[in-house]
Design a protein that fits this description.
With 336 residues, the protein is an alpha/beta fold. The protein folds into three domains: 49 residues, lambda repressor-like DNA-binding domains (434 Repressor (Amino-terminal Domain), Orthogonal Bundle), CATH 1.10.260; 123 residues, Response regulator (Rossmann fold), CATH 3.40.50.2300; 131 residues, Rossmann fold, CATH 3.40.50. 43% of the residues lie in helices and 15% in strands. α10 packs across α11. It is elongated, with a radius of gyration of 26 Å.
Length: 336
């Protein structure tokens, strides 16, 4: 068998008895040649086991056929669902994704964007993150961009977001309607737009119900399990009374559940617990977690659909997404 690395387009042309430019045009589908000549070229390609340089072909057409994706944490259950959606929607499109993690760090995200743009991606998807709007607008001057987790209106930019504030309001209001008044909030990464919006929804629900906001009940849980566990330990360790917890995401809710379990505190018998995201594993918590559903997989799919339409110059699709409270077994009415 021939070594693929040693076979060139010129060798294929010599074997087929045609010019290299004819082989090139046949490969990219622009050649007008006889069936006999095309068959000789195809036979030569097969005999030599020739594989064209796909990158070179794509760049010659003015495209790299790659889509850059800035995620925050590839290991995150939420972002991994979005990445699965991106891969599923790209399947069969001819485009390949390039993933870079931002680690909730603005400098890392800027480096990631620079890396992907320098690699001549045809479009860019930014999954939430810390990048300022002005940097995203500047980036869109070089490459079409879809950003999730915020609303941004600018040329060559499409935004895909849910109403995080409304989702948090709904979750908190649900706990209030169950009779809870001392509701702790495990907040997300400081400065993150999702975290700010979910805190705002929590506060609005309290205020509309005549419940005084108590900053001691709001604890930074960093959007992860370790943070959720530490937040509950902080509340209990400082003697701060609470009968319910609204966590800014399911991961911190799962950490909170572990902390309550270790303290012998029953959920929902003694403390009710509500999360946000509806990750696949939330159905299998003990007890199954009541949470606000954010369609992470569909977010990935819609982001790709919107970006490819933008690359092809097609009209922008409807990117609207809704949230809903998924009631399971981790919250209960106040008794006694």
């Amino acid at each position: 068998m021939n070594d693929r690395a040693t076979i060139t387009l010129e060798q294929v042309a010599r074997k087929a008895g045609v010019s290299p430019s004819t082989v090139s045009r046949i490969l990219n589908g622009t050649a007008k040649v006889s069936d006999a000549k095309r068959q000789r070229v195809e036979a030569a390609i097969s005999a030599l086991n020739y594989r064209p340089n796909v990158m070179a072909q794509n760049l010659a057409r003015g495209r790299s056929m790659t889509v850059g994706v800035i995620t925050q944490d590839i290991a995150s259950p939420f972002y991994s669902e979005s990445l699965k959606g991106i891969e599923a929607e790209l399947a069969g499109s001819g485009y390949a994704p390039l993933f870079v993690s931002g680690h909730w760090n603005e400098a890392d995200e800027i480096d990631g964007v620079t890396l992907l743009v320098d690699r001549r991606v045809d479009g860019l998807i930014v999954l939430t993150g810390m990048l300022p709007d002005e940097i995203l607008v500047e980036t869109a001057e070089r490459v079409p961009l879809v950003v999730t987790g915020r609303q941004l209106a600018a040329p060559r930019v499409l935004s895909l977001d849910i109403d995080h504030e409304a989702g948090a309001y709904t979750a908190t209001r649900y706990l209030i309607d169950l009779g809870h008044r001392r509701i702790a909030h495990l907040s997300g990464v400081q400065g993150h737009p999702d975290a700010r919006a979910r805190l705002a929804g929590y506060r609005r629900a309290l205020e509309q119900s005549g419940i005084t906001y108590d900053e001691r009940l709001v604890v930074d849980a960093q959007f992860n399990e370790e943070g959720g566990l530490a937040a509950i330990e902080h509340l209990i360790g400082n003697g701060i009374d609470f009968s319910a917890v609204f966590a800014a995401n399911d991961q911190s809710a799962i950490g909170a559940r572990l902390a309550l379990y270790r303290r012998g505190i029953a959920v929902p018998g003694q403390v009710s617990l509500v999360g946000f995201d509806d990750l696949p594993g939330s159905t299998y918590c003990t007890p199954p977690l009541t949470t606000v559903r954010q369609p992470a997989y569909e977010i990935g799919r819609r982001a790709v659909r919107a970006l490819l339409d933008m690359i092809d110059g097609k009209p922008s699709p409807d990117l609207g997404l809704s949230v809903e409270l998924i009631v399971r077994e981790s919250a209960a009415a106040v008794t006694g």
